[in-house]
Amino acid sequence: MDASNTPTLHPGRISHGYLVYCIISGILTLLSVICFALRFYHRYRSQDFWWDDWNIMGALASGIGVFIINILISLPSIGAAGYHIWEYTSDQLIIWAKLGLVADVLYNLSVSLSKISVVLFYKRIFSIDRQFRIFMAVTIFVITGTLLSSIFGLIFSYTPVAAQWDMSIPHTMIDTKPFYIIIAVVNISLDTAILGFAQLKVWGLHLNLKRKLLLSLVFLIGAL
Questions:
Q1: CA-to-CA distance for 183 and 66, rounded, in angstroms?
Q2: pLDDT, tens digit, for every residue of 122-167?
Q3: Are 173 and 158 in contact (CB under 8 A)?
Q4: What's a Pfam family this protein contains (predicted)?
């Protein structure tokens, strides 16, 4: 047999790409934990907890879950990710697919809870009027609907579900590309609406131009 056609065995070590990815993810996760701890401490001192705090706590917990799963996916003894597909055994691919599905669900949960937390946080800093109440209700409704649709699509895109990690099972599947394009467009639209609403509120305040620009910059940085 030609040596070039011989399947390559998995090298049994964390790939360089996943090592870099896990280091960067670890740093960002640590920063998130520190920021949350400072926020939680401030709320504790002022006894001012509200639903925005609990939502961001759920978002952080989900984000930490994603980080842990990515570590498991990268470990050679578990997911062993980062190499060509032909370097894996079928058992390794099954583990990788299962962990990847859980990570995707937790990621969507984390992002959605973060958005809901931001919308609820607006209630702390902006005057509450009919326009705001409508915006808050509609936005949270759309975020929740998008989250449920994403999770449902992730889990049930294959029938039966087990076919996602075992392709030997006879199955049917939906065309996921248009589904996820729609989800992406909705998420981008939500981000734009949430950020845009804050900008409208800022520029409606009775402040001088410099302070309005600084506040706008704060919200723009927060959006990153």
A1: 20
A2: 888 776 778 888 888 999 999 999 999 999 999 998 889 888 888 7
A3: yes
A4: Fung_rhodopsin
**Count of C-beta atoms within a 10 Å radius of residue 130:** 7
Strands 172-173 and 158-159: antiparallel
In the numeric block, which tokens belong to residue 119?
A: 């919308």
Tokens 């609403």, located at residue? 197
Single-letter residue type at 57: M
Domain boundaries, the chain: 11-223
Model confidence pLDDT, tens digit, residues 163-222: 888 878 888 888 888 888 998 899 999 988 888 888 888 887 777 888 888 888 877 766
The model's pTM: 0.84
Contact of 99 with 72, CB cutoff 8 Å: yes
Residue 11 CB: number of other CB atoms within 10 A?
Answer: 12
Query: 3-state DSSP: the chain helix, strand, coil percent, rounded to 5?
Result: 75, 0, 20
